[in-house]
Amino acid sequence: MELIYVLDILGTFAFAISGALVAFDKKFDLFGVLIIAFVTAVGGGMLRDVLIDAHPINWIGDLNYLYTIFAAVIFTILFKSKIFYLSKTMFLFDTIGISVFTLLGLEKGLSFNLHPIIALIMGMVSAVFGGVLRDVLTNKIPLIFEKEIYASACLAGGIVYLILNECNVADNIIFVISAVVVIAIRVIAVKFHLQLPKIKDDLFTKN
Amino acid sequence: MELIYVLDILGTFAFAISGALVAFDKKFDLFGVLIIAFVTAVGGGMLRDVLIDAHPINWIGDLNYLYTIFAAVIFTILFKSKIFYLSKTMFLFDTIGISVFTLLGLEKGLSFNLHPIIALIMGMVSAVFGGVLRDVLTNKIPLIFEKEIYASACLAGGIVYLILNECNVADNIIFVISAVVVIAIRVIAVKFHLQLPKIKDDLFTKN
Amino acid sequence: MELIYVLDILGTFAFAISGALVAFDKKFDLFGVLIIAFVTAVGGGMLRDVLIDAHPINWIGDLNYLYTIFAAVIFTILFKSKIFYLSKTMFLFDTIGISVFTLLGLEKGLSFNLHPIIALIMGMVSAVFGGVLRDVLTNKIPLIFEKEIYASACLAGGIVYLILNECNVADNIIFVISAVVVIAIRVIAVKFHLQLPKIKDDLFTKN
């Protein structure tokens, strides 16, 4: 599906920019910016492919990911003062990115004959672990562990995908519906500041 | 060996609880707690399997690990205020866990025709690196580098295993004796606050 | 090529010492020192081999790496008060290390029929990621992202290698010339305090 590939590249572009911005913020040099952009954009898929033994792994098998990351870093350097004005566009690309990464990761897992639960996890790893690796390399506690509905959106979209897949719905339709679920949850969560529940600390000491 | 599988699952359960407790303490959301519990419980074996190219890796090849981790997280949420009263039971499960993880990792290494030294390292990786990954993801210096006799207990048990294996002792007996060595060293070390020697800092500047 | 193997081992020795010194500085126990020395010395090649599916990976396939790391840790313990007087020798070994690691990594990538750009990246991963893993495990922002010309030296040497390789220059000559490029850039950079450009922070807020 040509369109999905385009969306995958768009998502890679958005993820790479978000990584590059974090690295600029940390005052990394050019090389550091490239690495963080790279890890953010393809780290999730790379981890997935290593775990399921899918060689060549994502960015080794398709150089377009590398070129996209290069382009994203150059774009960030040139337009970084304007990227804040583009925040809605960036949010859109980013949200498209996580939905496409989730569903492509899930599909790859299924195509490797993994159990649906494992394939679902692989979808989430694809979408989420680029950001985790970025945070580990920049010495922060991964954002996703603390206040993101991000992962839940991926999970919900993945589950919808698996259910529709069981019902033999056509592939394209499954993909579109599941992607809409991911995007909708993400947009609604950000709009209304939804978060996953936290287990209160005082339950520990009292109770 | 049925019993060893049960002990492996018990150890996974204990490791997952210890990971979940760290994540609760860091105020992670539910998703973050699941990931840290997961990484603590199966991270060591996962790293081992990736390094020795043993696919499907541990938790992909056997879903019981995932179910055990889920159960451990639910258990932690329900009984977290009482887990402190269970600290002796937890310590027992945890200690069983490291002994079984070490020896199963070592056996897996040998079954892949690795050099005994490499197999020994794989046993230690299995037992120890779940905790290292947990600490990296929660942005702490891995505990094990600073004050744990943990790894030495695994090392000693692994060496005993290899020696008895050379002497053609029966498999079951080797496993029991080596496990007892790991458990005994761990218990004695904790009881008497033993630590590995540290090279004093002032040796650097003076001397 | 015998000589290159000797240089590879020398580089491993130097990297292991640099890792051990960081770990001593952090007051890790003996086990922690061994792990950090190990990761610094063979972490880059290990990551490369996992990514390109080259099994057995570096230190599993050749025990000499392990023995070298052991020797380096013992050497560091015995002579740590004198290593500072050896700083020029250490710098020489370290610089030889990064040049040899880069070129051997690149060659390994090419021998696996990877695209030259990917092979170039694999050379840099081999030389640089041991240090990145060391910094992640000791809870620091990887040095290389902030102020090192290190990676650029590897990159330049790798590019020279690929160009000469296209021109069908003899293998030995390619290796020597490329290694000299890496070493020269590194030495000049350290001598004249050269750094990669940083994108100024105020470009973000103003401009």
Automatic annotation (TrEMBL), chains A, B, C:
<dbReference type="Pfam" id="PF03458">
    <property type="entry name" value="Gly_transporter"/>
</dbReference>
<feature type="transmembrane region" description="Helical">
    <location>
        <begin position="170"/>
        <end position="189"/>
    </location>
</feature>
<feature type="transmembrane region" description="Helical">
    <location>
        <begin position="59"/>
        <end position="79"/>
    </location>
</feature>
<keyword id="KW-0812">Transmembrane</keyword>
<feature type="transmembrane region" description="Helical">
    <location>
        <begin position="30"/>
        <end position="47"/>
    </location>
</feature>
<comment type="similarity">
    <text>Belongs to the UPF0126 family.</text>
</comment>
<dbReference type="GO" id="GO:0005886">
    <property type="term" value="C:plasma membrane"/>
</dbReference>
<feature type="domain" description="Glycine transporter">
    <location>
        <begin position="92"/>
        <end position="165"/>
    </location>
</feature>
<feature type="transmembrane region" description="Helical">
    <location>
        <begin position="149"/>
        <end position="164"/>
    </location>
</feature>
<keyword id="KW-0472">Membrane</keyword>
<feature type="transmembrane region" description="Helical">
    <location>
        <begin position="117"/>
        <end position="137"/>
    </location>
</feature>
<keyword id="KW-1133">Transmembrane helix</keyword>
<feature type="transmembrane region" description="Helical">
    <location>
        <begin position="91"/>
        <end position="111"/>
    </location>
</feature>
<keyword id="KW-1003">Cell membrane</keyword>
<feature type="domain" description="Glycine transporter">
    <location>
        <begin position="6"/>
        <end position="80"/>
    </location>
</feature>
<protein>
    <recommendedName>
        <fullName>Glycine transporter domain-containing protein</fullName>
    </recommendedName>
</protein>
<feature type="transmembrane region" description="Helical">
    <location>
        <begin position="6"/>
        <end position="23"/>
    </location>
</feature>
<dbReference type="InterPro" id="IPR005115">
    <property type="entry name" value="Gly_transporter"/>
</dbReference>
